[in-house]
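User: Hello! My lab partner asked me to get a predicted holo structure for this protein. The small molecule is prephenic acid, SMILES included with the sequence. Please write out the structure tokens.
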Amino acid sequence: MDAQKLHVAYQGVPGAYSEAAAGKACPNCETIPCDQFETAFQSVENRIADLAVLPIENSLGGSIHRNYDLLLRHTLHIIGEVQLPVHHCLLAFPGVRSESVRRVISHPQALAQCEQTLTKLGLNAAREAVDDTAGAAEHIALNNVRDTAAIASARAAELYGLEILANGIQDDSRNVTRFVVLARDPVIPPADRPLKTSIVFALEKGTPALFKVLAAFAVRNINLTKIESRPHRSCPIRVAETVKRFEYVFYVDFEASMAEQRGEEAMAELQEYTSFFRVLGCYPMDIGHKSA
Ligand SMILES: O=C(O)C(=O)C[C@]1(C(=O)O)C=C[C@@H](O)C=C1
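Assistant: Hello! Below are the structure tokens for the protein in complex with prephenic acid.
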């Protein structure tokens, strides 16, 4: 390992979109492949890596819930985000034709992002989820698998010597995945760029207060870019009189710095209604590119 370079953990094997996202977030870094999302978190905690770059949502497939849950379970800080256009290809062992493909393997997100196109292509093939897109390509190449195709990047085709049967098979050409950059310590974000803050909270028991939380942002003209709710794992169900209600933790991203007055005030007001509250990070927004 080159000690001069930043070491950035990602989930998957070389050729995964997450590796490309790590390179986009930290040009010239040394990337560290990890089997699972959790291993990427741990490698930063254990100082094997300086940063981790992990997918959090995709414009077609939606949220990557596992990473929302892991953000809460671990104590890493979000210090940045990067949007990566995701261009999927259907890859097969050289010489294999689409007619003989009986199985399509890939990461569940990639399968979801290509579902309609796979149906349109008329493939008579079962879908099977594996850990990552490039790992699917690697599996076909290493095991000479001839009845299976993988959904992965053109770079994975090149790395593992596979042929591209179809190019651009995502259901919408503007397919983009947003990744978060995680570090052990928070970083004071630059003041000259639009900032975003990510928080997570649970509401005080018995307070139907979600609308009040939203109002705390609305009255200060703070734009919310994302709300995600996940089961409240330590108290998943609450019985109120005869009604059983599901309890949630809410993840909110808003367009303001936690250091500016309106951001600070909104968070102070919000904490009047919460039993638990944590700032996950305050970082420059990736506003993407029109061509993406
Ligand atoms: O399997 C990969 O190549 C990944 O980097 C994972 C992942 C994801 O988890 O969403 C990343 C980007 C794409 O949306 C598809 C898959």
